Amino acid sequence: MAAQIFSAIFVIIAGVGGCVAYFWGANRLVDIIFPSRGVAGAAAIDNLRRQGLIRPWLFVGPAMIILTIYLIYPVVETLRLSFLDRGGANFVGFANYEWAFGDREFRSSILNNIIWLAVVPAACTFLGLIIAVLTDKIWWGTIAKSLIFLPLAISFVGASVIWKFIYEYRGAGQTQIGLLNAIIQYFGGQPQVWISLPFWNNFFLMIILIWIQTGFAMVILSSALRGIPEETLEAAVIDGANPFQIFWKIMVPQIWGTIAVVWTTITILVLKVFDIVLTMTNGQWNSQVLANLMFDWMFRGGGDFGRGATIAIIIMLAVIPIMVWNIRQANKETGGH
Amino acid sequence: MAVSTGKSFASRFGVHIAVFIFVAIWTVPTLGILVSSLRDKDQIIASGWWNSFASSTQTEAGRLPPASAQVEKDGKFVLEGNIFGDDPARDISAFGVKSAAPTQYPAGTTADLGDGETLQINADGSFVMTSTKPFEGERGQRVYYASSAPPKFTTDNYDTVLFSEGIGRSFMNSLTVTIPATVIPILIAAFAAYALAWMRFPGRALLIAVIIGLLVVPLQMSLIPLLKLYNGVGSFFGVPSKTYLGIWLAHTGFGLPFAIYLLRSYIAGLPREIMESARIDGASDFEIFVKIVLPLSFPVLASFAIFQFLWVWNDLLVAMVFLGTEGDQIVLTAKLNALLGSRGGDWEILTTSAFITIVVPLIVFFSLQRYFVRGLLAGSVKGG
């Protein structure tokens, strides 16, 4: 273990030192090869121009290399693999896609993903908005927000354990140690094995993600609400609008842009949801989702890379519209810069 | 926002109540595992954690001593003793002699068992059984009793989990993964962000668009090709394919788009005059970056560092693909996932392990919340 700590410290020093040495060294090299000081005017201008051509690439170079290896190449390769067989040796055309849409587990995953997509972003945004509005009105709102925000720091696995403990089941009549069943039993209901209830178990898994992500929606929306000009609200009050009208007709329309951002951010997260399903049910009892199914196929029976890649591509397809929208927005923003 | 939407006392009171309920829903689950992790492991299964400050009650069965222990007193045959032997740490509230009615008689009362026999069990466990006829048989009377133990809090679970369940080792592994994976991307991203914000070169706009596109590419797209690549590199050079170096670089790669995006939008917002006056003074881009941009960017560097730290620490997927599952490599999240399978019902192990995995993020989060929120706002609102 001591060796491990030393190697970690060594890597930090070597990594940071290496980065510094590279950037400093490469920069120095450019200065030496194309000197701009101490040479004749025309040559100096020429060299300055050459420096200007090279230097940006020295700065973005390392990032580009890493991005290419870890993201750009894999995207192309995954697309290619999705047309190959399990070992990646033979071309199989659309066989993997045909398999996917004929596979019962895959179709159930798609369906579950759609339910997740319909429920989680909406619930997080809605709850986040309500909490943001309410906490703005009370003196201990900051503390309340902090506490609601807190689950965002917790890992999905940790949150799964937390909620598995809440959903814990003991036979009817026994002392329930799971909070949910204890409440149900206290009011005279029948305790349930929540995470294996067909169909509804999906919602019990979704609650975990909603619990984690509401804080995110709340913080972003709360800051957007602060940006609403006071005058619009005051004018509404003077005109006799009631709190609900103010909320729906004055506040919400002014923060549509932010709501859309929160919604899409959580949507992407939901598409990638993996840890919660793996730790809670591992896809049993019809709770499978695409990301977990993909992980499963990566290793199932030695791994079927063709099918795994196909599932990844399908997740990617769902993300592409958001990706295009993001790039357009960013282009609009930085257009003049 | 000083909107007086709810002036009346009732509606203001309603807001307090509503927020209180939300806060309760969002904190009680975490509180549950914290409290449980500190409870005695027998009590965790005997009563809900919300009752942990009350005594926990359980119904047990026992047997009185056999007939050979009887003494004769005043013409009656008597059996005396204490059910708990020498561990009288519990209180009996009721007792009985039939399994169908285990708490038929309150403690301290004398029960008439019929046939001239009486039985009295006191709260402290002492009992007196009398009979007009001699007791017979080698097995004593079966008794049932409801006993309650006072609340017991302990740090034993932490000892067990840290030192014999391997969580302590995993904690070190998580740190080993997280710290380099947080530090390495910062410098690389900062240089790239500066170039994309303040240097002019062909292809810059395209690069920015690519990075914004990569922001949302699901991790799942990278897993299989990288797994193949790592296996290939591993077998080509005859080295293991699952190494810390491999996961550091993977996390660096996955974190870079966000890092560059976040840093670029901040660095682009720095005042132009500062850069230009430095340039006129003859400073090179490198000097401007190191002496002006880096110090001014401290808040956003801190924001990104917190994000990356939390993301890497909490990650399960990347660790499961690129690291081994043996003791010297398994990280906390993967270990906790493994424990869920192997120690499914042992809540003292699970709650304690879960609390250990979340305690570091919670500390980071509470101490640096300001930077975290700033990063969140810069990272998402800007995009809209």
Walk me through the structure.
- The complex is a heterodimer of chains A (337) and B (384).
- Chain A has 14 helices and no strands.
- Chain A has 337 residues and is mainly alpha-helical.
- Chain A folds into two domains: 80 residues; 232 residues, MetI-like (MetI-like fold).
- The radius of gyration of chain A is 27 Å and the shape is globular.
- The mean pLDDT of chain A is 89.
- Chain B has 384 residues and is an alpha+beta fold.
- Helix content of chain B is 57%, strand content 13%.
- Chain B has 14 helices and nine strands.
- Chain B is elongated, with a radius of gyration of 33 Å.
- Greatest contact between two chains: A-B, 129 and 125 residues
CATH fold-level name of the largest domain in chain A = MetI-like fold
Q: How would you sum up the major sheet of chain B?
A: 5 strands, antiparallel
Shape of chain B: elongated
CATH topology of the largest domain in chain B: MetI-like fold
CATH superfamily of the largest domain in chain A: MetI-like
Strand content of chain A: under 5%
The count of DSSP E runs of length 2 or more, i.e. the number of strands of chain B, is 9
